[in-house]
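This is your field. Please look over both lines of this record.
***
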Amino acid sequence: MSDTLRDIRLFVAAYEERSFTAAAEREHATQSGVSQHIRKIEDRFGVKLFSRGGGMVQPTPAGDSYYRHCIELLRLNESANRAVGRFGAGLDGEMMVGLMPTMTRSVLAPALARFVSAHPNVTVRVLEAFSAALTQRVRAGELAFAIVPATSGTVGVKMTRFAYTPEVLVSGAAAARPHMAPVRLSDLGPLKVVLPSAQNVRRVNLETYFASNGVTIAQRLELDAMMGTLDFIADSDWVAILPGLMMAKDAIQGAPGMPRALTVNPIADPPVGMDLVLIEPARHPLAPAAGAFLDILAEETARIGRVWGTEAGLYPEATPGS
């Protein structure tokens, strides 16, 4: 503690206790030490802060004024110490991770809020993109890790199972379907479907599902802009098949009496889903900050995924990769 702060603390103690002896006990000092510190302050300003006599000390008007300012200063000092102390309590450094819209729309916000609270001295950068771009950036070592749909192994990338999410049918109010009622796509008649582009891993899986389960598609529209897709569906008679993890909040939200912009329906007979994997550069392990963020991300994925009764956040299980 600096001499100035020590002087101020001893003055405040003497002011509040009205006794140099009691102030010394409170601040673990000696009575003569308190007296010397108070006299040093008085000599510095050339003004008496206390009237002494009869074993008691009474503050002068100057002492009253000085006390009010000292209390404010001590409060600010304590606030500053606590603020800086928060940064020393967690990890530090910086990291950049990659997430698909599946993760950024649902899991990212609560995970990020928890992480920055626990580790405020870590600079976090999140890149939202689809799997091909994220895989390329991970392989180049530009991302600490990314979460993408499961594919065959990529050279230079370590792959680990992270979570499973069902695919769900998403439509607007025009469809007039009961919200969260299971549906069989083959029973819904010709569908106008918004799909990701052919470069997206999910596109192949969905087209295979349509062909093998008798799902009739009237029109296809390619959109790789997720927010645009949701807005378009809400205002039209088009539908999309989207990861349930991404649509978890839409599945449970909706104020009574308020119209719902999006209707979500689990797909049944048969269900269709997607495995998500953690990918990281094969040549080096995760840094402590990235590992801590990944742990929180997995916990939030598991929590949100329970909306669908699915098992999630299983990234410790290894998946064969290069």
